[in-house]
Amino acid sequence: MTGIQNAMQGATPAARSAASGSSFHAAMRVLPASQRQAMFEIYAFCRAVDDIADGDAPRAERLAGLQAWRREIAACYAGAPSSSLADLAAQIERFQLRRDDFLAVIDGMEMDAMEDIRAPDDATLDLYCDRVASAVGRLAVRVFGLDDDCGLPLAHHLGRALQLTNILRDIDEDAARGRVYLPGPALAAAGVTLDTPAQIVAHPAIGAACAAVAREAQAHYDRARAIMDRCPPGRARSPRIMADVYHGILTRLQARGWSAPRTKVRVPRARLLWIVLRHAMA
């Protein structure tokens, strides 16, 4: 059995999403059943390739696993999907999902698999955010039924806002993997010496670099909300939930501060439920 078959068999995509306890799962529950199923299939794909990129296998094996996913996606678009991806292929056809967006996600995972990203320049970080987050958004907005004039800029800004928030939330976990996604220019401006990941994230001046990333994330949230205000309300419920949940994480991170040791930040379950209900009834 291939690694892809292993990744996609067993629990349904919806069950895997629910088991993760993710805000993604909560945001998708407000969708009609057909759209919800499509998003769970996209989620399963993203989880599978992310698990490869973050796995413990040698880099060559991880890259080979991601290359196998390229072949599987190609087969979906050729009308000959493997049995484990038949449901994903059906959603690709139903919502006219773009092959380039799936491949962009794989490209982003390859950036992690090829080498540990450490203090990237601004252009590299933006490319990474586009591939691992905004590309997923470009798939999602087609499922939501948003046209390109609204959907593509929303995917651009909300994807970057969410990914930058993830980077700020996961500083210590990423450093334990040998990665530092905080941008090199912001670290240099703060006077943080580019040493080992553990030393970078423990540096007493790291707060200035984190604050710069937080400001960039906030600017993307502001742009995303302005775009959502122009979108048909019923088609923007899920992205509004994601924006509110992750902006709540950003706000809590800023209130907590950036100095080590850093406590884990989460949105309380009651707050998550309130956000979902508020947008579901809008």
Automatic annotation (TrEMBL):
It holds the Pfam family SQS_PSY. Transmembrane segments: none annotated. Coiled coil: none annotated. This is Presqualene diphosphate synthase. It is an enzyme of class 2 (transferase). InterPro entries: Isoprenoid_synthase_dom_sf, SQ_synth_HpnD-like, Squ/phyt_synthse, Squalene/phytoene_synthase_CS, Trans_IPPS_bact-type, Trans_IPPS_HH. One of its GO terms (molecular function) is transferase activity. Keywords: Transferase. It comes from the Bacteria. The gene is hpnD. Its EC number is 2.5.1.103. CDD domains: Trans_IPPS_HH.
